[in-house]
């Protein structure tokens, strides 16, 4: 098994191509191909974390996404944000989320607190 560190974008692209090829064969864990896939995936994840970090989601977009996922309306947000006018203000970015709102959204809707806090 000749595996090298991923240091450049061409190395990264080659590793992705090889991962796609290996996944097409659906190798079993513990086989040479399965081990190769496991190691390449780990290397790609490390490279992506360093060179292609995914920024945290925007807090308002995270709320809108959860509302869409769960089919929630502005009225449904009352226990988490407050009266409808306040929900509209928050969603329109005219009012910031308070710490109490963040806690209620996290506990009640399962939105990660780090997503609600924002950068």
UniProtKB/TrEMBL annotation:
GO biological process, one term: regulation of DNA-templated transcription
Superkingdom, natural source: Bacteria
GO molecular function: core promoter sequence-specific DNA binding
Name of the molecule in the record: Transcriptional regulator
Alphabetized Gene3D superfamilies for the sequence: lambda repressor-like DNA-binding domains (1.10.260.40)
């Amino acid at each position: 098994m000749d595996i090298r560190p991923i240091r450049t974008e061409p190395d990264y692209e080659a590793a992705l191509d090889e991962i796609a090829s290996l996944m097409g064969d659906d190798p079993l864990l513990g086989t040479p191909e399965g081990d190769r896939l496991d190691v390449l995936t780990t290397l790609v994840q490390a490279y992506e974390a360093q060179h292609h970090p995914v920024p945290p989601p925007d807090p308002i977009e995270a709320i809108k996404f959860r509302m869409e996922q769960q089919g929630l309306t502005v009225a449904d947000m009352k226990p988490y944000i407050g009266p409808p006018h306040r929900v509209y203000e928050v969603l329109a970015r005219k009012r910031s989320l308070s710490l109490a709102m963040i806690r209620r959204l996290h506990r009640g809707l399962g939105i990660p607190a780090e997503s609600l806090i924002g950068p």
